[in-house]
Fold this sequence. Notes:
By secondary structure, the chain is an alpha+beta fold. The chain has helices spanning 4-16, 21-32, 35-57, 66-71, 252-255, 269-280, 305-315, and strands spanning 116-120, 127-130, 136-139, 144-148, 156-167, 176-180, 183-187, 191-196, 202-209, 212-218, 221-228, 232-237, 243-247, 262-268, 282-286, 295-300, 318-323, 336-342. Helix 1 (4-16) packs across helix 3. It is globular and about 65 Å long.
Amino acid sequence: MKEKNKLYRLIELEYSGNQSKEQQAELDCWRKESSEHETEYQEVRKVYIYSQRLQAMKKIDTSKDLALLKSRMGKTSPIRKLYSGFQHVAAVLVVPLLIASIWIFMGQPKFNQEIIKSTETAFGVRSQIQLSDGTKVWLNSGSQLFYPEEFSGKRREVKLVGEAYFQVQSDKDYPFYVEVGNYAVKATGTSFNISNYPDDLEMTTFLESGKVDLIAIEGGKEVSYGKLSQGQKIVADKSGNKVTFYTEANSKKHLGWIDGKLLFHKDSIGDVARRLGHWFNTEIIIDDESLNDYFFTATFTNESLEEALRLLKFSSPIEYQIINNKQLDDSSFAKRKVIIRKGRK
Protein backbone atom coordinates (compact mmCIF):
# COMPACT_ATOMS: atom_id res chain seq x y z
CA MET A 1 0.00 0.00 0.00
CA LYS A 2 2.54 2.52 -1.18
CA GLU A 3 0.07 4.90 -2.77
CA LYS A 4 -1.49 7.27 -0.26
CA ASN A 5 -4.54 7.63 -2.50
CA LYS A 6 -5.30 3.96 -1.96
CA LEU A 7 -4.86 4.35 1.78
CA TYR A 8 -7.18 7.35 1.70
CA ARG A 9 -9.78 5.35 -0.22
CA LEU A 10 -9.67 2.43 2.23
CA ILE A 11 -10.04 4.80 5.17
CA GLU A 12 -12.98 6.47 3.42
CA LEU A 13 -14.66 3.08 3.01
CA GLU A 14 -13.89 2.17 6.63
CA TYR A 15 -15.27 5.48 7.87
CA SER A 16 -18.52 5.06 5.94
CA GLY A 17 -18.87 1.36 6.85
CA ASN A 18 -18.94 0.32 3.17
CA GLN A 19 -15.68 -1.62 3.07
CA SER A 20 -15.59 -5.30 2.16
CA LYS A 21 -14.01 -7.90 4.46
CA GLU A 22 -11.06 -8.14 2.07
CA GLN A 23 -10.53 -4.37 2.08
CA GLN A 24 -10.72 -4.18 5.87
CA ALA A 25 -8.29 -7.11 6.20
CA GLU A 26 -5.87 -5.41 3.80
CA LEU A 27 -5.99 -2.18 5.79
CA ASP A 28 -5.60 -3.96 9.14
CA CYS A 29 -2.67 -6.02 7.85
CA TRP A 30 -0.91 -2.95 6.50
CA ARG A 31 -1.36 -1.07 9.78
CA LYS A 32 0.20 -3.92 11.78
CA GLU A 33 3.31 -4.11 9.60
CA SER A 34 5.07 -1.24 11.38
CA SER A 35 4.58 1.68 13.74
CA GLU A 36 5.27 4.00 10.81
CA HIS A 37 2.29 2.55 8.96
CA GLU A 38 0.06 3.03 12.00
CA THR A 39 1.22 6.65 12.34
CA GLU A 40 0.53 7.29 8.66
CA TYR A 41 -2.91 5.69 9.00
CA GLN A 42 -3.81 7.97 11.91
CA GLU A 43 -2.57 11.07 10.05
CA VAL A 44 -4.47 10.28 6.85
CA ARG A 45 -7.58 9.38 8.85
CA LYS A 46 -7.48 12.78 10.56
CA VAL A 47 -7.09 14.54 7.20
CA TYR A 48 -10.09 12.66 5.83
CA ILE A 49 -12.30 13.42 8.84
CA TYR A 50 -11.36 17.10 8.82
CA SER A 51 -12.03 17.33 5.08
CA GLN A 52 -15.50 15.90 5.62
CA ARG A 53 -16.22 18.47 8.30
CA LEU A 54 -15.01 21.32 6.10
CA GLN A 55 -17.21 20.18 3.23
CA ALA A 56 -20.20 20.15 5.54
CA MET A 57 -19.37 23.57 6.96
CA LYS A 58 -19.40 25.13 3.49
CA LYS A 59 -23.12 24.44 3.33
CA ILE A 60 -23.88 26.21 6.59
CA ASP A 61 -25.65 29.59 6.66
CA THR A 62 -23.62 31.89 8.92
CA SER A 63 -25.90 34.92 8.63
CA LYS A 64 -28.00 34.17 11.72
CA ASP A 65 -28.27 36.81 14.34
CA LEU A 66 -25.50 36.49 16.95
CA ALA A 67 -27.86 37.32 19.79
CA LEU A 68 -30.09 34.42 18.82
CA LEU A 69 -27.11 32.08 18.77
CA LYS A 70 -25.97 33.20 22.20
CA SER A 71 -29.44 32.55 23.58
CA ARG A 72 -29.06 28.91 22.55
CA MET A 73 -25.93 28.34 24.62
CA GLY A 74 -26.43 25.55 27.12
CA LYS A 75 -29.19 23.94 25.03
CA THR A 76 -29.05 21.06 22.59
CA SER A 77 -30.87 20.24 19.39
CA PRO A 78 -30.84 17.09 17.25
CA ILE A 79 -29.20 17.06 13.87
CA ARG A 80 -31.41 17.24 10.82
CA LYS A 81 -29.59 14.82 8.61
CA LEU A 82 -27.24 11.91 9.26
CA TYR A 83 -23.65 12.48 8.11
CA SER A 84 -24.25 16.20 7.75
CA GLY A 85 -21.05 17.00 9.62
CA PHE A 86 -20.59 19.64 12.28
CA GLN A 87 -22.93 22.63 12.35
CA HIS A 88 -20.79 25.51 13.44
CA VAL A 89 -21.25 29.26 13.25
CA ALA A 90 -18.19 31.45 13.70
CA ALA A 91 -18.69 34.64 15.71
CA VAL A 92 -16.34 37.48 16.64
CA LEU A 93 -13.30 36.09 18.47
CA VAL A 94 -14.33 32.68 17.15
CA VAL A 95 -16.32 31.97 20.34
CA PRO A 96 -17.40 28.31 20.27
CA LEU A 97 -21.18 28.13 20.56
CA LEU A 98 -23.49 25.22 21.15
CA ILE A 99 -23.88 23.19 17.97
CA ALA A 100 -25.98 20.31 16.78
CA SER A 101 -23.79 17.74 15.11
CA ILE A 102 -23.08 14.14 14.34
CA TRP A 103 -20.07 12.04 15.24
CA ILE A 104 -19.48 8.64 13.72
CA PHE A 105 -18.04 6.30 16.37
CA MET A 106 -15.35 4.26 14.65
CA GLY A 107 -15.89 0.55 15.11
CA GLN A 108 -19.46 1.00 16.39
CA PRO A 109 -21.74 0.78 13.31
CA LYS A 110 -24.96 0.94 15.35
CA PHE A 111 -24.34 4.63 15.98
CA ASN A 112 -24.89 5.19 12.27
CA GLN A 113 -28.59 4.57 12.93
CA GLU A 114 -28.98 7.04 15.79
CA ILE A 115 -29.50 10.74 16.13
CA ILE A 116 -26.42 12.15 17.82
CA LYS A 117 -26.48 15.33 19.85
CA SER A 118 -23.64 17.60 20.83
CA THR A 119 -23.24 20.07 23.66
CA GLU A 120 -20.33 22.50 23.51
CA THR A 121 -19.22 25.02 26.12
CA ALA A 122 -17.50 28.25 25.16
CA PHE A 123 -14.24 29.17 26.85
CA GLY A 124 -14.92 30.69 30.23
CA VAL A 125 -18.28 28.89 30.44
CA ARG A 126 -19.29 25.68 32.24
CA SER A 127 -22.51 23.73 31.73
CA GLN A 128 -24.42 20.73 33.07
CA ILE A 129 -26.57 18.27 31.12
CA GLN A 130 -28.47 15.08 31.89
CA LEU A 131 -28.42 12.16 29.45
CA SER A 132 -31.41 9.98 28.62
CA ASP A 133 -30.36 7.30 31.14
CA GLY A 134 -30.17 9.78 34.01
CA THR A 135 -26.38 10.20 33.89
CA LYS A 136 -25.31 13.75 34.80
CA VAL A 137 -22.40 15.46 33.06
CA TRP A 138 -20.65 18.72 33.92
CA LEU A 139 -18.67 20.22 31.00
CA ASN A 140 -15.68 22.44 31.63
CA SER A 141 -14.61 25.45 29.60
CA GLY A 142 -13.94 24.80 25.90
CA SER A 143 -15.29 21.23 25.97
CA GLN A 144 -17.68 19.21 23.83
CA LEU A 145 -19.71 16.05 24.44
CA PHE A 146 -21.29 13.85 21.74
CA TYR A 147 -24.09 11.52 22.83
CA PRO A 148 -27.15 9.76 21.39
CA GLU A 149 -30.61 11.18 21.89
CA GLU A 150 -31.56 7.80 23.37
CA PHE A 151 -29.17 5.01 24.35
CA SER A 152 -29.77 1.66 22.64
CA GLY A 153 -28.02 -1.70 22.51
CA LYS A 154 -25.82 -3.13 25.24
CA ARG A 155 -23.49 -0.14 25.56
CA ARG A 156 -24.09 3.45 26.61
CA GLU A 157 -21.51 5.41 24.60
CA VAL A 158 -20.48 9.06 24.46
CA LYS A 159 -17.45 10.90 23.11
CA LEU A 160 -15.61 13.67 24.97
CA VAL A 161 -13.32 16.42 23.74
CA GLY A 162 -12.05 18.61 26.59
CA GLU A 163 -12.89 18.04 30.26
CA ALA A 164 -15.98 16.69 31.99
CA TYR A 165 -17.16 15.26 35.29
CA PHE A 166 -19.54 12.29 35.07
CA GLN A 167 -22.04 10.92 37.57
CA VAL A 168 -23.03 7.73 35.79
CA GLN A 169 -26.44 6.20 36.42
CA SER A 170 -25.82 2.69 37.75
CA ASP A 171 -26.67 -0.17 35.36
CA LYS A 172 -24.32 -3.17 35.36
CA ASP A 173 -26.07 -4.73 32.38
CA TYR A 174 -25.43 -1.67 30.21
CA PRO A 175 -21.90 -0.33 30.82
CA PHE A 176 -21.15 3.32 30.15
CA TYR A 177 -18.27 4.18 27.78
CA VAL A 178 -16.59 7.56 27.35
CA GLU A 179 -14.51 7.59 24.18
CA VAL A 180 -11.38 9.74 24.52
CA GLY A 181 -9.16 9.44 21.46
CA ASN A 182 -7.52 6.02 21.28
CA TYR A 183 -8.88 5.07 24.70
CA ALA A 184 -12.24 4.63 26.39
CA VAL A 185 -13.23 4.82 30.04
CA LYS A 186 -15.70 2.08 30.97
CA ALA A 187 -18.00 2.42 33.98
CA THR A 188 -21.28 1.01 35.29
CA GLY A 189 -22.27 3.40 38.07
CA THR A 190 -19.65 5.76 39.38
CA SER A 191 -18.38 9.36 39.42
CA PHE A 192 -15.16 10.44 37.73
CA ASN A 193 -13.43 13.31 35.94
CA ILE A 194 -11.76 13.12 32.52
CA SER A 195 -9.45 15.73 31.01
CA ASN A 196 -8.82 15.21 27.30
CA TYR A 197 -8.18 18.54 25.56
CA PRO A 198 -6.94 18.22 21.95
CA ASP A 199 -3.65 20.03 22.59
CA ASP A 200 -2.75 17.92 25.64
CA LEU A 201 -0.17 15.16 25.25
CA GLU A 202 -1.90 13.05 27.90
CA MET A 203 -5.41 12.04 28.90
CA THR A 204 -6.14 12.06 32.63
CA THR A 205 -8.94 10.30 34.51
CA PHE A 206 -9.57 10.79 38.23
CA LEU A 207 -11.99 8.45 40.01
CA GLU A 208 -14.04 10.00 42.80
CA SER A 209 -16.18 6.94 43.61
CA GLY A 210 -16.88 3.46 42.29
CA LYS A 211 -14.65 1.77 39.72
CA VAL A 212 -13.71 2.41 36.10
CA ASP A 213 -11.66 0.52 33.53
CA LEU A 214 -9.38 2.14 30.95
CA ILE A 215 -9.64 0.20 27.70
CA ALA A 216 -8.71 0.29 24.03
CA ILE A 217 -10.26 -1.54 21.10
CA GLU A 218 -7.74 -3.76 19.33
CA GLY A 219 -8.79 -6.24 16.68
CA GLY A 220 -12.42 -5.69 17.57
CA LYS A 221 -11.82 -6.71 21.20
CA GLU A 222 -11.56 -4.71 24.41
CA VAL A 223 -8.05 -4.55 25.86
CA SER A 224 -7.87 -3.37 29.47
CA TYR A 225 -5.02 -1.17 30.66
CA GLY A 226 -6.17 -1.49 34.25
CA LYS A 227 -8.93 -0.64 36.69
CA LEU A 228 -9.05 2.46 38.86
CA SER A 229 -10.10 2.41 42.49
CA GLN A 230 -11.55 5.32 44.44
CA GLY A 231 -9.10 8.22 44.80
CA GLN A 232 -6.81 7.00 42.01
CA LYS A 233 -5.76 8.83 38.87
CA ILE A 234 -4.63 7.38 35.57
CA VAL A 235 -2.53 9.26 33.02
CA ALA A 236 -2.42 7.84 29.48
CA ASP A 237 0.06 8.98 26.85
CA LYS A 238 -1.82 9.85 23.65
CA SER A 239 1.12 9.07 21.39
CA GLY A 240 1.62 5.52 22.61
CA ASN A 241 0.45 2.95 25.12
CA LYS A 242 2.17 4.30 28.22
CA VAL A 243 -0.28 4.34 31.12
CA THR A 244 0.59 5.39 34.68
CA PHE A 245 -1.49 5.03 37.86
CA TYR A 246 -1.33 7.45 40.80
CA THR A 247 -2.99 7.73 44.18
CA GLU A 248 -4.36 11.26 44.41
CA ALA A 249 -4.91 12.61 47.90
CA ASN A 250 -6.35 15.96 46.81
CA SER A 251 -9.61 15.34 44.94
CA LYS A 252 -10.46 19.07 44.93
CA LYS A 253 -7.56 19.62 42.56
CA HIS A 254 -9.44 17.68 39.86
CA LEU A 255 -13.01 18.63 40.77
CA GLY A 256 -12.73 22.25 41.93
CA TRP A 257 -13.49 23.58 38.45
CA ILE A 258 -17.10 22.37 38.86
CA ASP A 259 -17.54 25.10 41.49
CA GLY A 260 -15.60 27.66 39.45
CA LYS A 261 -12.29 27.13 41.24
CA LEU A 262 -8.95 26.38 39.59
CA LEU A 263 -6.80 24.55 42.15
CA PHE A 264 -3.12 23.68 42.03
CA HIS A 265 -1.33 21.53 44.59
CA LYS A 266 2.41 21.06 44.14
CA ASP A 267 1.99 21.26 40.36
CA SER A 268 4.83 21.93 37.95
CA ILE A 269 4.80 25.17 36.00
CA GLY A 270 4.09 23.13 32.88
CA ASP A 271 0.87 21.76 34.38
CA VAL A 272 -0.06 25.22 35.65
CA ALA A 273 0.47 26.72 32.20
CA ARG A 274 -1.58 23.99 30.52
CA ARG A 275 -4.58 24.37 32.81
CA LEU A 276 -4.46 28.18 32.84
CA GLY A 277 -4.37 28.02 29.05
CA HIS A 278 -7.58 25.98 28.95
CA TRP A 279 -9.24 28.18 31.57
CA PHE A 280 -8.51 31.44 29.75
CA ASN A 281 -8.33 30.16 26.15
CA THR A 282 -4.71 31.27 25.92
CA GLU A 283 -1.59 29.66 24.51
CA ILE A 284 1.02 29.71 27.29
CA ILE A 285 4.62 28.94 26.34
CA ILE A 286 7.35 28.07 28.86
CA ASP A 287 10.51 29.53 27.36
CA ASP A 288 13.00 28.06 29.86
CA GLU A 289 13.09 24.35 30.78
CA SER A 290 14.76 25.12 34.11
CA LEU A 291 11.43 26.57 35.27
CA ASN A 292 10.09 23.01 35.46
CA ASP A 293 11.93 22.73 38.77
CA TYR A 294 9.37 25.07 40.36
CA PHE A 295 6.07 23.82 41.78
CA PHE A 296 2.99 25.77 42.75
CA THR A 297 0.08 25.53 45.17
CA ALA A 298 -2.69 28.06 44.60
CA THR A 299 -6.44 28.51 44.20
CA PHE A 300 -7.93 30.85 41.60
CA THR A 301 -11.62 31.81 41.50
CA ASN A 302 -12.49 35.15 39.93
CA GLU A 303 -8.97 36.25 39.06
CA SER A 304 -8.17 37.40 35.54
CA LEU A 305 -5.27 35.87 33.61
CA GLU A 306 -3.15 38.91 34.38
CA GLU A 307 -3.87 38.60 38.11
CA ALA A 308 -3.04 34.88 38.06
CA LEU A 309 0.26 35.56 36.31
CA ARG A 310 1.15 38.28 38.81
CA LEU A 311 0.57 35.83 41.68
CA LEU A 312 2.81 33.26 40.00
CA LYS A 313 5.50 35.89 39.51
CA PHE A 314 5.25 36.85 43.18
CA SER A 315 6.01 33.27 44.28
CA SER A 316 8.67 32.31 41.72
CA PRO A 317 11.46 33.88 39.64
CA ILE A 318 9.53 34.33 36.40
CA GLU A 319 8.78 37.07 33.92
CA TYR A 320 5.94 36.95 31.44
CA GLN A 321 4.91 38.66 28.23
CA ILE A 322 1.29 38.83 27.06
CA ILE A 323 0.70 39.00 23.31
CA ASN A 324 -2.88 40.06 22.72
CA ASN A 325 -5.23 38.72 20.05
CA LYS A 326 -4.46 39.68 16.46
CA GLN A 327 -7.13 39.83 13.80
CA LEU A 328 -6.60 37.34 10.99
CA ASP A 329 -7.37 37.68 7.29
CA ASP A 330 -10.75 35.99 7.75
CA SER A 331 -11.74 38.62 10.38
CA SER A 332 -11.41 36.12 13.23
CA PHE A 333 -8.91 36.58 16.03
CA ALA A 334 -5.89 34.45 16.89
CA LYS A 335 -5.66 33.00 20.37
CA ARG A 336 -3.99 35.22 22.95
CA LYS A 337 -0.45 34.12 23.78
CA VAL A 338 1.68 34.31 26.94
CA ILE A 339 5.41 33.65 27.06
CA ILE A 340 6.90 32.78 30.47
CA ARG A 341 10.64 33.21 30.97
CA LYS A 342 13.00 32.95 33.88
CA GLY A 343 13.23 36.26 35.71
CA ARG A 344 16.37 38.27 36.13
CA LYS A 345 18.27 37.99 39.37
